[in-house]
Design goal:
The complex is a heterodimer.
Chain A lengths: L2 E3 L4 E5 L4 E3 L2 E3 L6 E7 L6 E7 L7 E2 L2 E6 L4 E6 L8 E8 L7 E3 L3 E6 L1
Parallel strand pairs in A: 2-12
Antiparallel strand pairs in A: 1-4, 3-9, 5-6, 5-10, 7-8, 8-9, 10-11, 10-12
Chain B lengths: L3 E4 L2 E4 L5 E7 L5 E7 L5 E8 L2 E5 L6 E7 L2 E6 L8 E8 L7 E2 L3 E5 L1
The chains are: A mainly beta, B mainly beta.
Chain lengths: 115, 112
């Protein structure tokens, strides 16, 4: 069974600095999808970025980028120029391409932004 | 123009009661999901429906019964509520073959 591990329960970063959130996963599949979701205090789940495993190029969305290392089964999220609005729980997630396409979430990393 | 909506957003009830949470999506997606987020923020899939057909049914007590009247709606009915059912329940939707799930705002259920 697939698993997703986020080893950092909490992290803090100074406003305007860069922070990297770690995520590793375990799977025997060769094709899959990876996501980072953000959950601010409003509790809404917001998609931050996604990566298809067959793509070698790392996904980027404005200040958010990933470092996808398929062989190492690692999928870290880098947030550049951190802003106060980035404070939230961040969840790494894995999705199989199979029909039952459920998402498996990590336990989350709570990110604090220090003014 | 809400994409995935849930009602109610908050639900407080007594043990033993029966309650329902409704979910609707206007994205034209054909697959809908229910997730449970516990007090430690852990999110786990409960059910998914594709075109009104149950696809995923994780190890969930049979007090929980999803119902999909059409592909835009997926409701969750819970019988004989227990203290341990207190959680935030999220509805989500996606297009079969697509890989991104879009989440509703969540329903915080508190069982007293």
């Amino acid at each position: 069974a697939q698993t997703v591990t986020q080893s950092q329960p909490e992290m803090s970063v100074q406003e305007a600095e860069t922070v990297t959130l770690s995520c590793t996963y375990d799977t025997s599949e060769s094709d899959y999808y990876l996501f980072w979701y953000k959950q601010p205090p409003s509790r809404q789940m917001i998609l931050v970025i996604r990566q298809e495993a067959y793509k070698q190029q790392n996904a980027t969305e404005n200040r958010f980028s990933v470092n996808f290392q398929k062989a190492a089964k690692s999928f870290s999220l880098k947030i550049s120029d951190s802003q106060l609005g980035d404070a939230a729980m961040y969840f790494c997630a894995y999705r199989s391409p199979n029909r039952d396409d459920k998402i498996i979430f990590g336990k989350g990393t709570r990110l604090h932004i220090l003014p | 123009d809400t994409a995935v909506s849930q009602t109610p957003k908050y639900l407080v009830t007594q043990m033993g009661n029966d309650k329902s949470i409704k979910c609707e999506q206007n994205l034209g997606h054909d697959t809908m999901y229910w997730y449970k987020q516990d007090s430690k923020k852990f999110l786990k899939i409960m059910f998914s429906y594709n075109n009104k057909e149950l696809i995923i049914n994780e190890t969930v007590p049979n007090r929980f019964s999803p119902k999909s009247p059409d592909k835009a709606h997926l409701n969750l009915h819970i019988n004989s509520l227990e203290l341990g059912d207190s959680a935030v329940y999220f509805c989500a939707s996606s297009q079969q073959g697509g890989y991104t799930q879009y989440f509703g705002p969540g329903t915080r259920l508190t069982v007293l």
